[in-house]
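Reviewers asked in the last cycle whether our approach scales beyond single polypeptides. To address this, we selected a multi-component target totalling 572 residues and predicted its structure end to end. The input consisted of the following lines:
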Amino acid sequence: MVSQVLQKPAELPISARLAKNVRRHILERVIEFILMLAALSAVATTISIVVILLYESYTFFEHVSLFDFLTDTEWTPLFENAHYGILPLVSGTLTTSAIALAVAIPLGTIGAIYLSEFASHRTREIVKPILELLVGVPTVVFGYFALLFVTPLLQKIFPELPGFNMLGPGIVMGIMIIPYISSMAEDAMRAVPMSMREGSYAMGATRFQTAIRVVTPAAISGIIAAYILGISRAVGETMVVALAAGQQPNLTFNPMESAATITAYIVQVAMGDLPHGSIGYQSIFAAGLVLMLMTLTFNIIGHLTRKRFREVY
Amino acid sequence: MVTTTSPVKAESRDLNFYYNGGHKALKGITMPLYEKRITALIGPSGCGKSTFLRCFNRMHDLYPGNKYDGQIVMHPDNTNILDNGVDPIEVRMRISMVFQKPNPFPKSIYENVAYGLRVRGERSKRVVDDKVEEALKGAALWDEVKNRLHDLAFNLSGGQQQRLCIARALATDPEIMLFDEPTSALDPIATANIEELMSELRNKLTILVVTHNMQQAARVSDYTAYMYLGELIEYDDTDRIFTNPSRKETEDYITGKFG
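The resulting structure, written as structure tokens, was:
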């Protein structure tokens, strides 16, 4: 056997034509840094919001016990005899959101199925932009619409309905959310490959059967994402409920009563003349924290459900 | 290969087809499909063989602007299934199809096979159970999946998915089965399985298969049609097409001088 002695090759000088281009290198780094700053600005904003909410809430919870906050059934921070129970605001938020979703999820889903599976190309090109125009209507307009049109209309059916109630704004909020849900759900359904639809039609299925039994399950993760977005919109919506649901915190799930939501309360205080640093003022940060935790919970639930249903095709 | 003559199950008569925009993709195709025989369609890409196959279950109806001109007569009804008065859904109830790429639905293995029965409104669990088992056995997939019928179909391998699609198509007892390049997305072993399966299915139903693979046509089919640029160049017994074609173009294609 011949053994070869391994020799390390001698270092070679670098030719000028192959040497690192310093200018290009630095420029690339600068661009990377600028891009990173842009990306970080969103993250930084989110983090600072959370930090401020936590910090200001901390001062609030130095005066009010967490137990009272979570169990007291009255929310009267601005009264002489102040109570700080968040439940009435949570009930108002959940009730109006539930009404909104009861309107938006069925109508939005049906709209998406129609646009994706039934409408002709022409119809879709006309209807979809109109639907998306609804997104551009300022929410304050929807608020007046709820207060001055929908509630009076509902009072013709339910004469005992008060001028401020949760039903009217809930319905209007639902109408407002429909385009979000239908547009996103439609995108998800259209992304389902044509070969899957053909498979269904080839088995003798009708359009409706194909839409319900094949396309919808195939797009379910995107459809759920659309619902989650709708829920977050409803929970966080401010103007409509502040204008039309009333400003009185009221622990009730009855849509025929008036109640304040978390967002409506925050608006009321932030716009009012409470001095900074007073407990009443601090209370909006605690309320804001609860609101954020609620949307966060919905987002996490949505994320998990989506993962559970994710389909690969 | 062909021992006895068999009745004609379906035949196209002077069939022309126009895609949306007016492109004429089929030009005067006339040929029979014999009952319980396998007919293969061969030809270079774009020759219209898939277009022709998809006329048989009116798949072109799904896209606006397509136009048929001519007849596909199905027996024993002696009816032109391209007629406006014919419901394409009824046609598809009797003529099923297996696609180029396996396209299972986002459902369990069981529900994939049961799909055709559910669409037809079958409610009896016993009937569905029996049919699903029979179809999976017919597609040589039963032994591999009988213990996980309720797993998602996407978890199967490509070859298994294609056999699942065959089981799905079989579960409704179709009279004719269309195969659109059923093995082009599969490895050689899975391909051999599908080819064997097709030979077995030949006892039960009439098969029309589009294939890119000439050896496949030679191996599995009884009759072969060679198409080129939307025209039927030659149709004959598979043996004759591959040993002694009467047209020069056919010979050039099968010997690899062209295509």
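Chain A has two domains: 23-63, 87-309. We regard this as preliminary and will revisit it once experimental data from Aim 1 are available.
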